[in-house]
Request: fold
Amino acid sequence: MRLFGESWATVVALRLPSPELAEGAGAEANAAYALLEQVLPFSGPLFSARLVESGGPEWLLYGAVPQATLAAVASELS
Reply:
């Protein structure tokens, strides 16, 4: 987990397991990945969330910020 920003502008970045590991975990993990891919990116009145790839692992980014802020943080992940 990585944090970017501070206070209400904080963005949380959670590194997700590789899809290969999720496939080995069974149907529940596959269903969770499929659901994430269906609902993201999400922008609501309280928070935004999106999945990003940074040349390797996938990350789930979320925070009480607009999508533009999540996109800016995505460029800082490695």
Q: What stands out?
A: Residues 27-39 form the longest helix (13 residues). Strands lie at 2-4, 11-15, 42-43, 48-53, 58-63. The chain has three helices and five strands. The chain has a mean pLDDT of 89.
